[in-house]
What does this fold into?
Amino acid sequence: PRGFEARAAGREPGPETRRLAADSDLYKWMEGAAYTLALTGDPAMGRELERIAGLVIACQQKDGYINTQTPPNRRFDPAINHDLYTAGHFFEAAAAHYRATGKRHLLDAAKRWADYLIAEHRAGNPYFETVARKEHSEYELGLLRLARATGDARYLDFSKTLARLIPVGRELLAGRHAVRVNYLLTGYADLFLETGAEEWLRNLTAVWDEIVATRSFVTGGVSVHEAYQKEPHWLPQSTDHPRRDIAETCTSISLAMFAWRLHSITGDSRYFDQIERILYNHYLGAVSLDHLATFYYNPLHMLAETKGKTDHDGPLTRRTRLPEIHSTACCVTNEWRFFGALSEYLFSYDRDGLYVNLYTSGSVRQKLPSGAEAAVRVETQYPHEGRIRLTIGGQEPQRFALRLRVPAWCTSARLRAAGGPPRAVAGGSYVVIEREWKPGDWVILDLDMPARVILPRPEEKENAGQAVLARGPLVYCLEQVDSKFPIAQARLNLRPEDAARRVKARWRPSLLEGVYVLEAPGVAGPLTLVPFYARANRAEDNRWLTFLPLETRDRQ
It folds into this structure.
């Protein structure tokens, strides 16, 4: 918050604060801090959040505008085009703060800023003439959340007005900035959830299908050079650019946000299949195991020259470690707010029942519109183990539908509930148990997790002749630190259909905070692979491969 501290004290901020849309990064921290405060009640977190809220309000100008970078920048600068984006993140932070604390001072500041923007738009500020082409979407979401928090329909109407400037269709994927596209799509989905108007739903699922089928990496990430590829199925494992910039971390977070809204609209499990893929591979793979460092980009292989870290000296195989941050620090703060919001993704509900979307140990108690109360405790070691045990809580019997997501990757799963026989269930949908539940009733879902091979689609020319090993929701990679020979020479010696038999999973409790490694046959010798999310945590100058050339010389 150095920029805000300086402005509030009447000083000019130092050069270290002159990052693109730097204020928005603090707002994302505030949003994540509000979610964390709501969950934990941590008094230290509450005090720091209020301190920073006070700094922000102290920097608000009389007309409602806030931007610690003006001067030297100017308002509505067409060379920067982040005024509305920054405001949107503040609106989200203010709404989250109000929800967590019940205090209105930050929300009132957000209203003053939004009122100023509406007045500028009505006065014909020429900046709004180029918003559709140049601004960074996010303001649609922020305005909508502000409308929900305040009950003021003007903010909803302004969100609609700005969102309509950019029609949604497949043409959005022809080279446009991926995070901007994903935030726009998320805004459209949220507007449909708020209004039920068909105009906001039109083309959304078609664009989603196009993203997942033709522009999504095996880890769930998207983007090349921060944009959606103009041509479908161009999925390079890295690029020749010095940063190797594929799969920006923010793109995976924004895509998960879009998927969450689509699930809210449809109840379709496939959206959480993609969220799970993102969460356990691309997103967690960006963050170091100690949570203090992050990758801005996430190439699937790193073999060549690794000098030229994104924004500072150091190898490309090393995450940027706090207190260092990137020149555009959007990813690390986006990670923080997503971590804070993640508990809201685990469960959802409709009139008649509870959805269990992601599996982790925890509990939920939810009053349903039907009048029943669903109280469930989950115990599991997922994603390392496939057994999930759910126990019904509460004080008296309740009738509701319990919907358990069986991931699409799972080809063999069994369900057993108290009082009933075990039965096989199919992957790629929710298995539904609707009954009267008594406190203490239990359900066990077993998801088989043999090693498997993921083959690229025939259209993915860059990845032809190669394969990825996976187990459960986790994608694996080969790190140089685990190989006795240069991994550039590594070759899988395996028929895909034999993976479950020939690839062995071994639990290594002392490795990388506890992981299953995969031991696979290779042409030059055995290969030991670790989960992609855990790579780059043991050496600064390391190498890794996710796709491995596939050979089948030995067919035993």
Observations:
- The two ends are 61 Å apart (CA to CA).
- The mean pLDDT is 94.
- The CA atoms of residues 105 and 518 lie 53 Å apart.
